[in-house]
Write a structure and sequence with these properties.
This protein is of the alpha/beta class. It is 29% helix and 15% strand. The strands form six sheets. It has a five-stranded parallel β-sheet, with helices on one face. Strand 4 and strand 5 form a beta hairpin. Helix 1 packs parallel to helix 12 and helix 7 crosses helix 8. The protein is globular, with a radius of gyration of 24 Å. The two termini are 30 Å apart.
Length: 530
């Protein structure tokens, strides 16, 4: 894999919430040959990558560099970046240090903070497109709506919302897990006359200055947006269902003088960044992981980190009690922020822990009887995760719809392939989410596995491969056994990592190194090959 140093720059004239927009040159699909050009899989076989977030972009880059000549990269949005293009709420940023979050094969220097904003990551995605020449492959505003396996042709028929039909030999789904906003159903919602929005669908036309704002939710997006919204709102009330374990973030602005120093010797800066990345990775994979694998040392250490952080920033005993979690550390996502707790101590900010009973035309009433008059309601309620309701309808062997197969919960061998769906690969699929490290590391390993699969198909001169049901069942059993030793399996632990039956469908059962080992080679005996 060729490493490209990205000179990512961020114009001060561009609003941070809107990122940097490029104008990719789109490939002319009207002259594209939709037919498979070879009897067997080869480097000219059309391959479709669905989704141009970080996963889809990395897959396109690595396959292009490997020599695949007929790649199709489809993105339903108007720009690349996936979740980082979608989420533009005030304060939106990554909770993983940028040294670890950017790709190992495309490090950049022009970051303004050690924890990058959503706009900066989206701009980084734009730079990936231009630096690696992905423009001819990319179709923006093109939503894939159905993919149907053609057993006779041993290929996929892919249809997009604009009516175009493409025949492709393989599909790489980079649709991700966290892109379907979840809004709880609360009585009386439709009667509320004020403005309302989800954090992942921010309405920049709504002016929050001086307004009475209610934020429903208290987790990852809430702790980022509340400090920013509190700066302009006349009043703000946060409706909290459960408190979170929160540790210090330690974010730092990177001044222009420091960037200039790094640019004086870019190669040395890249080498230093690689060492820093390795150190952060090893720390997370060795020590932070112990919080979730539930070692006594891990539980004690990170519970104490959160306790000390809370005590340092919140002196009021009553407020501190409301912000103290009542579940085991690691059960839910561990958060990092230095600005959330101080925001809650401001006179015009209120923390409400009573259950919301319902809306009326002017606001929200809670179980204690208190009514809050509101002008704007913000849902910081996360995403629909366990249902995996993709907008793409995938139909595999025997006319089986993937949505039906996953009705009781998604299952995927190594989180990448699933039974009955030949030549269909997933990035950031079921069982590959993390609580402790960077998803970009997992994506790089998954793409390497997909590359090995495709190379094997070409070398063996075969058309398709689908994971055997018994191999998938064995993998799931082993995975669930490993997950059974984590905090997520504890009966008292309720989180978005589980479905309504208590099955952990989202997370990998070990650290990142164990996943890298699991996907380090293709076990062809686990696949039915045609």
């Amino acid at each position: 894999m060729r490493t490209v140093w990205l000179s990512v720059t961020f114009s001060p004239e561009i609003a941070p919430s809107k990122g940097i927009v490029s104008q990719p040159v789109l490939y002319d699909r009207s002259v594209h040959n939709n037919k498979l050009g070879a009897t067997f899989m080869d480097h000219s076989t059309p391959i479709a990558i669905i989704g141009a977030g970080l996963g889809g972009l990395a897959a396109a880059i690595q396959l292009k560099q490997t020599g695949y000549q007929n790649l199709i990269l489809l993105e339903k949005g108007s720009k690349v970046g996936g979740t980082w293009a979608q989420n533009t709420y005030p304060g939106c940023s990554c909770d993983v240090p940028v040294a670890l979050y950017q790709y190992s094969f495309a490090p950049a220097i022009h970051w303004t903070n050690t924890y990058p904003s959503s706009a900066e990551i989206q701009a980084y995605c734009e730079q990936l497109v231009t630096s690696f020449g992905l423009e001819p492959l990319l179709s923006l505003n093109t939503e894939a709506i159905s993919a149907i396996w053609d057993a006779a042709a041993q290929s996929w028929t892919l249809t997009t919302a604009d009516g175009q039909v493409r025949q492709v030999g393989a599909i790489i789904s980079a649709l991700g897990q966290l892109n379907r906003p979840a809004i709880p159903q609360i009585p009386g919602q439709s009667s509320f006359l004020g403005a309302s929005m989800h954090s992942a669908a921010w309405n920049h036309d709504v002016d929050l200055k001086g307004k009475r704002v209610g934020v429903i939710g208290s987790a990852a997006s809430a702790v980022q947006l509340i400090p920013e919204v509190a700066k302009v709102a006349g009043s703000l009330v946060m409706f909290q269902r459960s408190a979170n374990y929160i540790g210090p973030r330690g974010d730092r602005e990177i001044p222009a003088t420091e960037i200039a120093l790094l640019l004086s010797n870019p190669q040395a800066a890249m080498d230093l960044g690689a060492r820093n990345r390795a150190m952060i990775f090893d720390t997370a994979d060795t020590y932070f992981w112990q919080t979730f694998s539930w070692t006594p040392e891990g539980r004690a250490a990170y519970a104490d980190i959160a306790k000390r952080h809370l005590e340092k920033q919140i002196t009021d005993p009553e407020l501190r009690a409301k912000l103290t979690p009542d579940y085991a550390v690691g059960c839910k996502r561990f958060l990092f922020t230095d600005t959330f707790y101080p925001a809650l101590t401001q006179d015009h900010v209120t923390l409400e822990t009573a259950r919301i009973e319902g809306f009326d035309a002017t606001g929200v009433k809670v179980a204690s009887g208190t009514h809050y008059d509101l002008d704007v309601v913000i849902y910081a309620t996360g995403f629909e995760t366990t249902g995996w309701h993709w907008s793409l309808d995938v139909v595999g062997q025997n006319a089986t719809h993937l949505a039906d197969q996953w009705a009781e919960g998604p299952e995927a061998y190594l989180g990448i392939t699933t039974k009955g769906f030949p030549n269909f690969f997933m990035l950031y699929g079921p069982h590959t989410n993390l609580g402790h490290n960077s998803i970009t590391y997992m994506l790089e390993r998954q793409i390497e596995y997909v590359q090995a699969m495709l190379a094997g198909l070409i070398e063996q001169k075969v058309k398709s491969a689908a994971v055997k049901p018994e191999a998938q069942a064995r993998f799931i059993a082993d995975l669930q056994n490993g997950l059974g030793h984590t905090v997520w399996a504890d009966p008292s632990c309720n989180s978005w990592y589980k479905n309504d039956k208590g099955h952990i469908t989202q997370n990998w059962g070990g650290n990142c190194k164990s996943y890298a080992e699991a996907v380090s080679s293709v076990v062809w005996a686990d696949y039915e090959v045609v």
